[in-house]
Every structure is written in structure tokens, then in C-alpha cells.
Design goal:
The chain is an alpha+beta fold and 554 residues long. 23% of the residues lie in helices and 26% in strands. The strands form 6 sheets. A 6-stranded mixed sheet has the order 1-2-5-3-18-19, with helices on both faces. A hairpin with a 5-residue loop joins strand 18 and strand 19. Helix 2 packs across helix 3 and helix 4 packs across helix 5.
């Protein structure tokens, strides 16, 4: 990014829910740690180059110890002879106030970053700020926006949300990846204008692609509802408009903002207990009977374990021409408050079945000890209870005033109670309003893209159509009932559908599907990264007129 073309601010997003748990465990071992050490290694290469080119660096790599990272950056700068001014943002760490927490951090906005840059900082490191704040904070500094410039701030938040996951905006993790060369996608950048609009692009000569589709996919990622609630502004995703401005250039405009809530989201991680797992390989005939035998043989061994979950993945093929493709995987995951009940004694005993169980018995890994797992929760806290502070390059501690909410501003919600499980509907075989012309059974992905991800124990699945007719059909067809029927694992869970017509998109929130969050390893796909691709692979009746024309056969 520093050598590929012009740049004013280089941002780095290092934090996620799982990262906070990892940093929390690091801090237990050494109170001087708690920040992303990889940032320092990267800075060894780039700090001098950034200084030469006048590029400011803003990163949330401070994690649980932004002051410690700021000192480490100063030490590195002195060692390398690069005269940079370093500032940091703190106040988000509320761990001492939450009983039993490994970490507890409020999601701060970009105002502290803005203050540090106004004071002349060349490098700003923060703790837990929102991912988009790494872009909106510098934009507010550059254009001298006021805290109530809601539309401008919302536009910058939208741009920041597109940039926050790097190459996901340039063709990485993209449903239609085969259209582009994504072997080594370049990183995205945003050319932000004074009115808050932005052009998403990338440096010339880098791989991947920036298209309306790649930008749409990232806009839908890990959002819940049409209001994207943040500490500085509430961004109305239903007002976002995208315009193709040529090769690898997509404009984001029209974004409207509303006042932020009077609360901040606090992400809390705890050690939830201990877990272990064994994966048995079942080969050839009688797969179900072999799996059942193992379950019966381990019944007594699992007595007293708090939670034991079996999953049989039928990866086997009939009359397979390789042993691997003739095999299925039976996975046992155990969790318990005590490491002894799910430790090496349990996994060793399971593997000792080898000479007296199903034919062809083997496992994918040797017996191992129990590992701690984490639990993530998110709760609101009044904003005035969080001491958002900018520590300027000269050491001055500057309290950041609260953004003024309005009475109509939405609040960060507390975790909802689950409603009674709904009846499972049949998989839809036709649109509610039958389209003109014939239909054919085909995967949803033939006409729609998707991007999915996690928010604590919840998952979101964004689905979009590329044309107006496909959107009309998708909007009518993919109801909540149809979504549940296509993804039976969502049965019995609260599912909410949000409509974003400007993006020709629907966004579904599935509450509770990820249990206690990624650190608990609740599911095979604990961050729901592939939930959207599973949805795209499901078949339903699709109008022939919407399907792409078959490729000509030579």
C-alpha cells in the first residue's frame, strides 16, 4: 500500500471477538502484552517509508494495551531513527468493572483518533474502536467535520466498513470469484470526498477486482438491520447507492446518517470451560452402523460430561476410487467446566477402542489434552460511563466529549429472548407470485450472491441480486419461511429479514445459531463464514429467464 500509489492514511484493523480472547490470555501471562505483536513486525518495514511519504498510520492493534503498544512504537522509532509522533486512544477497557470477565471493552468511535491526528500524530494506535472508526476518524480530521455532520460521517463509516476486511472488497471470499483473477487480490482504498461520498478502488497493477458486486458483498457483511448503529453516527444502509465509475472504481454516495445511540456496545469475553474433540474416520460400507457402534461404546465414558455433541459428516461416495473419498467423518466434541473430565484420559480411552470397535477404526489425530474455550457476550452501557480519552503525542490526556444522541436514536440492544420455535415449512418449489415463463430446479447461487459472518452468537447472511428482474424475484421468493426451509439448521431460531432495495439485497439475522460465539467452537463453521455459500448451493424453482445462458459447447 505504501509503494503502490498515492496514500494519505494507512489503516490497520487487527481486532475481532476471538482476537480479544487471545489477547486476554496473553495479558494473563504477561501484563505488559495484550496488543497485536504482528503490528510491530510490520512497522519495522514500513515506518520509515510512511514517514518519507507523509502517510499517517492508524491501527487498532493496541488491543487491551494501547499505551504499551504506543511505547513500543516509540522504542522502535528511536531504534530505526525515524522521527515520528505517536499517540494513542484509551478508555475502552472496562474489564475491572465486569465480574468474571477475561476482557470487557466498549466499542469506541473515531473522535479520539480525530483528536490525535489534529494534534499532529503520525502514528495513532487504539484499543477496541469500531472497525469503521479507523476510516471515519481520519476523514473527520482531514475535512474538519463536526460531530453532528451525520451524513458525512455515515458516508465515511460506509467506506470504512468496505475497507475493514481488506481484500474481501477486492474479490476475496466473493461468490462470483471465478470471474476475476483473485490469486493475489490487492488491498482496497477509499478516495473520500468532503461530502462523505467515496470511491472504492485499489492501486494500479494489483490483483483482484473492485466491482459493484464486491462492494455490495462487503457492505452486507456482519451487519444487522438497515440501521448500522455506531458510536459516532447511525448509518442508514438502506440509503447507500453504488455507481460503477469504470475499471476498479465504485462510488458510494447518498448515505444518510442519524444521531448515534446514548449507549455503547461492550464486548465481554470469559473462559467458558474446557473442550476436546475426536474425529473418527469411517470407511466403506455400513457407515451409519459404524457410527452408532462408537456412540454406544462411549456412552459410559461420557457419563457426567456436561456437553457431548456428535456430528456425522457423510463425505463418503459410493464405489469410490480413492480411500479418502470412500470415508465419512464422525466428530465428537466434549465440553465441561473441569479439564479433567474432558482431558487426555477421555481422548486416550476413546482411541483405546481401536482393536475392539468398527472395522477400519482410525482417527485423524492422536489423543490430546483439554483446551480452554471462550464465551462472548455483548451488552449496552451508557456512553457517559466510558472514559474515551485521546493521549496526544506530548502526553496530554484529552477527554473526548460524547456525541449528542437524539430521543429518536436507536439503542444498542440487549440480547433478545428466543421466541417459541416455529413449525418447519416445506422447501419452496415456486415463487409466491409465479413469474412469467417456465421455471427449472437450480441452485439459488445461479442468480444471487451471498456473504455471511458472525456477531457474537448470531450470524448474518446477506443475499443480493445483480439485475432488477432477479431482485424482483428474490425479494418475493426468499421470505423468512423460505430461508428457514432452505437452511434447516436455522429451524427453531429467530430469523429477521431486512430489505435493502438500493443494493438489490436482503440481509438475514439468525439469532443464537453460533451459541456463545466463535471462541466456544459451537459449530463446524463457528464464524458462519460459509453459511451464505450453503444457502447459494440449495435448490429451488427459478425462472428460466433469470438463469445465465449456458456456455456454447465447442
Amino acid at each position: 500500500m505504501l509503494t503502490g500509489g498515492p496514500l494519505d492514511v494507512l489503516t490497520g484493523d487487527y481486532l475481532a471477538e476471538l482476537t480479544m480472547l487471545i489477547l486476554g490470555r496473553d495479558r494473563l501471562k504477561n501484563p505488559d502484552l495484550g496488543y497485536a505483536k504482528t503490528f510491530l513486525r510490520q512497522l519495522e518495514e514500513g515506518l520509515g517509508l510512511a514517514h518519507e511519504r507523509g502517510v499517517r498510520i492508524v491501527a487498532n492493534a493496541g488491543g487491551l494495551n494501547p499505551a504499551g503498544l504506543a511505547d513500543a512504537v516509540r522504542t522502535l522509532a528511536a531504534k530505526t531513527g525515524v522521527p515520528v509522533r505517536v499517540a494513542h486512544v484509551e478508555g475502552d477497557d472496562l474489564t475491572a468493572q465486569v465480574d468474571g470477565a477475561l476482557t470487557a471493552n466498549a466499542y469506541l468511535g473515531g473522535a479520539g483518533i480525530t483528536a490525535c491526528l489534529r494534534a499532529g500524530a503520525d502514528v495513532v494506535v487504539t484499543g477496541r474502536v469500531t472497525d469503521a472508526a479507523l476510516v471515519s476518524g481520519p476523514a473527520a480530521w482531514w475535512f474538519n467535520w463536526a460531530p453532528d455532520d451525520h451524513d458525512r460521517l455515515a458516508g465515511a463509516v460506509a467506506a470504512g466498513h468496505v475497507l475493514e476486511c481488506g481484500t474481501q472488497a477486492t474479490g476475496g471470499n466473493y461468490s462470483f470469484f471465478a470471474r476475476h483473477d483473485v490469486r493475489r487480490p490487492g488491498f482496497p482504498l477509499a478516495e473520500i470526498a468532503e461530502d462523505g461520498s467515496a470511491v472504492i478502488t485499489k492501486h494500479p497493477g494489483t490483483g483482484g477486482a473492485v466491482t459493484e458486486g464486491t462492494v455490495t458483498a462487503q457492505l452486507l457483511y456482519e451487519t444487522q438491520g438497515v440501521r448500522y448503529v455506531g458510536p459516532d453516527v447511525t448509518t442508514r444502509l438502506d440509503t447507500v447507492r453504488l455507481t460503477d465509475e469504470g475499471a476498479d472504481r465504485v462510488r458510494i454516495s447518498g448515505v444518510r446518517g442519524e444521531a448515534p445511540p446514548s449507549t455503547l456496545k461492550v464486548g465481554v469475553t470469559r473462559i467458558g470451560g474446557w473442550r476436546n474433540e475426536i474425529v473418527f474416520v469411517l470407511t466403506g460400507l455400513d457407515i451409519e452402523a459404524k457410527a452408532n457402534l462408537v456412540r454406544i461404546q462411549l456412552t459410559d465414558l461420557l457419563d457426567g460430561v456436561a456437553d457431548a455433541t456428535w456430528t456425522l459428516a457423510r463425505t463418503d461416495h459410493e464405489d469410490a476410487d480413492t480411500q479418502e473419498t470412500a470415508s465419512a467423518l464422525l466428530r465428537l466434541v466434549v465440553r465441561d467446566p473441569s479439564p479433567d473430565r474432558v482431558g487426555r484420559a477421555l481422548t486416550s480411552a476413546a482411541i483405546e477402542l481401536a482393536l475392539g470397535s468398527y472395522p477400519g477404526f482410525h482417527v485423524t489425530a492422536p489423543p490430546g489434552p483439554a483446551q480452554p474455550y471462550g464465551v462472548f457476550t455483548a451488552n449496552p452501557i451508557p456512553s457517559q460511563e466510558v472514559p474515551h480519552t485521546a493521549v496526544l503525542p506530548d502526553g496530554t490526556r484529552l477527554p473526548i466529549p460524547l456525541a449528542a444522541p437524539t430521543s429518536a436514536a436507536p439503542e444498542f440492544p440487549a440480547p433478545p429472548a428466543a421466541p417459541a420455535p416455529p413449525a418447519r415449512p416445506a422447501v419452496p418449489t415456486a415463487s409466491p407470485a409465479p413469474p412469467a415463463g417456465p421455471t427449472v430446479r437450480a441452485p439459488l447461487g445461479a442468480v444471487a450472491g451471498a456473504r455471511s459472518g458472525d456477531k457474537g452468537g448470531d450470524a448474518n447472511v446477506g443475499v443480493w441480486a445483480e439485475t432488477g428482474p432477479a431482485w424482483d424475484w428474490l425479494h418475493r421468493t426468499l421470505t423468512v419461511d423460505a430461508f428457514r426451509a432452505l437452511l434447516p439448521e436455522t429451524d427453531g431460531l429467530p430469523v429477521t429479514r431486512h430489505e435493502l432495495p438500493n443494493l438489490r439485497a436482503l440481509n438475514f439475522t439468525v439469532t443464537g445459531i453460533l451459541g456463545d460465539g466463535v471462541a466456544s467452537g459451537h459449530r463446524f463453521d463457528p464464524q458462519a463464514k460459509a453459511l451464505g455459500e450453503w444457502l447459494r448451493a440449495r435448490h429451488l424453482d427459478i425462472p428460466v429467464a433469470l438463469l445465465p445462458a449456458p456456455e456454447a459447447t465447442p
